[in-house]
Amino acid sequence: MTLEQDPTGTASTIPPLEVTRPTDPVTSRRKFFVAAVAATSVLATREVKAQSIRRAKRKLPEPVRGVSLSLASAAMPPDAQLAVWRDPVGRLLRRATFGVTKEELTRARKLGFSKYLDEQLKPSVIDDREVAAFVATNYPTIRMTADQLYGENLGKVMTEIQEATIYRAAFSRRQLYERMVEFWSDHFNIDRNNVGYLKTTDDRDVIRRHALGTFPALLKSSAHSAAMMEYLDQTSSRRGNINENYAREIMELHSIGVDGGYSQQDVNELARVLTGWTVTGVGVFTYDAGIHDFGPKRVLGRTIPATASGKGLSGKGEADAIIEMLALHPKTALYVATKLTRFLLQYDPTDAMVQKVVAEFLRTKGDIPAMIRVILTEQNLTTAPAKYKRPFHYAVSAVRALGPGLTSVSLVRTLVDNMGHSVFAWETPDGYPDKLEFWSGLVLSRWNAATSLSSASGTSFNFDVTPFVGTSADTGADLIIERLFGGEVTVSLRTRLADYLRPSPANTARVREAVGLALSSTQFQWY
Amino acid sequence: MTTHVQDHGCEEYNTLSRRGFVGAAATFMAATSLPAWLPKVVLAQSASSRDIIVSVFLRGGADGLSMVYPFTDTNYYTGRPTIAIPRPDSSVANRGIALNGQFAISAAMSALLPAFRAGNLLVVHGAGLVHNTRSHFDAQKFIEVGKAQDPNLVTGWLGRHLATSTPMRSNAPLRALGLSQGLPRTLVGAPQTLPIPSPATFGLGGNATTRAERSAWLRAEYGDMEASIGTPALDALNTVSLLNAIDFNGYRPAGGAVYPNTGFGRGMRSAAALIKADIGIEAIQLDIGGWDTHAAQAPVTGGMSRTMTDLANSLAAFHADALTGGVTYNVTVVVVSEFGRNVRENGSQGTDHGRGSCLFVMGPRIAGGRVLTNNWVPLARENLESGQDLKVTIDHRDVLAEIVSRRLGNTNLGVVFPSYVPTVRGVTL
């Protein structure tokens, strides 16, 4: 084979391809294309994000091949016209829980929007003893001190923290609280593969303790976490030999954000301020004045004068004061409010929405439930485009829908791993992404997870299919729809489910597959 | 003399891709497949001399001065009393190997010497992001999207390259993939592109006897759906049989190549298998982490030395397997990181976030066997950025743009790297 190579790779006798925009909307695909071009009419450098275009329900007779990801399309699911999406209580449940169940929807409707939200924002009033008892019995290590954990088998400790997290997300009645645990676990991400059993202590003593408390308390708590000190190398920073890792990330990722207005000099100086913040013994946070830099420093415009070196806690107050300042900084309010609104409401909130949350942060000094009230309003909820469930959320919502009898959630843990969302295993401190385009290509592993869950009939995890077996394909489809979608789906999905059941609607294997397909359907991917 | 089978020996395909494409297929593409956000472009040609690209991101900020280091510069040794790589002309164990009179490569990466000596491996030093940031996440984003600080630019440079190129195989269901859990930002915006963490196990589970039926059900269900989740779902369904036909587990590398049994090694092995399977894949993105060496960096014998060995052995195996093995393929491999690290070590025998680093380009049509620099100066404090870092003297986009235009045959550089006029550095032959 001898084929002349052209070093530029572009030559050849082929004339340049002129791309012309279609002008005759002959097919609906073309219609879509033209509409998309018109709707966006942007240059490559001015891309329109998914959420900024709101479009009515769109049904396409054929897939629009190649129109890329969310970039040219609305992110409303096709069933956005359904009543279940228009109902404010239904929308609140979609955002405040890990999956709407029929029972929870009934209960919430009885309570009403405000009372349900009030209840969820005050988790201590919600009786959750059953879940607490299961967790205490099955995952004993999550209550252990670092010292005790050190003596345990690490694999067991790691399994238990993951499975406890999954179990609580699925079954706790404090659903919004568990959603906030998810949020803060990403915000203050710690990779369990990096810190091992210390993740267990951070989860309990930092994240879960303050998930619905105040942001300043949470930030301070995280700054006193042995796990965080280890994870971000604060333990190896000392006077004269600073390590700037934690100093950078507490500003960039935990408080004022990358656009918070700090310089490299601020990072270096804050690292000096933080010298002495470290870990002693087996995972115990400590302050060591012996390695603190008592020289003069200047961080974010604030001057810290030199002091004589001392003992005990002398010098620790320097960083305490800076962290206090960071916790209530207006840039922190903006950064946290934006992130929280994106998580709870929509990928691309308007400035006006975010500014209301910022104002509430500043007014309440970072009260987390107060901010959530400003985000989860009836008006915001009913206009917010749907969000795509991340794999953890997806798996947990499937478990909630199926209501299995179980003694273990190890199956769910494995499936979450397979879907690329292993609990507490994101390596870098920015936490798992919450972006549609990051996850939407991993669809096969989602469908396979749905199949695994719907076909699970073992003793440790048993999905009882008998209540889904109807007398005909149509009643079978209705039973599935009732349980998984609150009774409401598009006509096409109902038809499809019935069609799948039709060959043998009483065959339990067939019904299990139909349930798996229902969980795989497009409508189950959104919340 | 090797035989470059850039057309994979299929005359029918060549004819289709050259002539047929310009006719019917091109019209179809223009009408249905061009992303709406693209401005009017002239699609890159489906010329059969276009390379496949394998793009590797070293996540965490790889210390270029531990990979390829200026061994004649005393500043390097005074700034790194505990972590410098020993001089190649010393007799110290684990000393590096000189690449020329000025630079040496770490012993941990010696597996790359054959590729370098064959002229297939280019080291570009003092390269990186011109925009000054030491944030991992901003720096990675800016490199992957190909522009700094543009909140409206969310697609990746490689994604835009693919979106402005005619497919190398007009009917390929899968043009690009990330061997990763989740789509890498570099590829966002690319048509027919998926994250596939494990190509060997890519498929629909459950009962085999109903698999076709369930697959058809899902195809209908997602076929109705809008593009954001409909397109990747259909791409996945269209790709299953293609990947299942490849025996990844039984894959035998050519040229005696042995891939490390690591995540990255297995990834490069899969990349070679995918390329040789000749299914129309034109871009593969891989990540390798572990470069954020704030503490106990240990580039000579410890942690970072193992990471460098993993990288080098995997790349070397790919070189032997796909670039110089029995049958060779037109592939360009590019390896970048978000930034380098401080010239002087910190108090934890590690290094904090810096600026310039080195990047690698490998391929049969790369002007390799050299260390490419631009005004390299001794690493004295007064020559360093902020008194601490190797300056970025070569914008990474110069290297990537030259590859895009000369090896990937795409002239739409204004779309791939918006608002940037690259300087030609002579990266390609």
Question: What keyword list fits this structure?
Answer:
heterodimer; A: 527 residues; mainly alpha; two-stranded antiparallel ribbon; 27 helices; disordered N terminus; B: 429 residues; alpha/beta; Alkaline Phosphatase, subunit A; nine-stranded mixed beta sheet; three-stranded antiparallel beta sheet; 12 helices; 12 strands; globular
Report on the architecture of this protein.
Helix content of chain A is 52%, strand content 3%. Chain A has 27 helices and 6 strands. Chain A has helices at 28-40, 83-86, 88-96, 102-111, 113-121, 129-138, 146-150, 154-171, 175-187, 192-195, 198-210, 215-223, 226-231, 245-254, 264-273, 316-327, 330-344, 351-364, 368-375, 378-383, 391-402, 410-418, 436-439, 443-454, 473-485, 491-501, 508-520; strands spanning 277-280, 284-287, 297-299, 302-304, 405-406, 461-462. A two-stranded antiparallel ribbon of chain A has the order 1-2. In chain A, strand 1 and strand 2 form a beta hairpin. In chain A, helix 24 (443-454) runs antiparallel to helix 27. Chain A is elongated. Helices cover 32% and strands 12% of the residues of chain B. Chain B is of the alpha/beta class. The model of chain B is unreliable at 1-33 (pLDDT under 50). Chain B has one domain: Alkaline Phosphatase, subunit A, CATH 3.40.720. The interface between A and B is large, with 102 and 115 residues.
Q: Roughly what is the average pLDDT of chain A, rounded to an integer?
A: 86
- How many whole angstroms does the radius of gyration of chain A measure? 26 Å
Ends apart, CA distance between termini of chain B:
17 Å
Say how many strands of chain A there are: 6
CATH topology of chain B: Alkaline Phosphatase, subunit A
Using the CA coordinates, give the radius of gyration of chain B.
22 Å
Instruction: Please provide the count of β strands of chain B.
Output: 12
Side by side, the strands of the main sheet of chain A go: 1-2
Query: Quick one: CATH class of chain B?
Result: Alpha Beta
**Residue fraction in strands of chain A:** under 5%
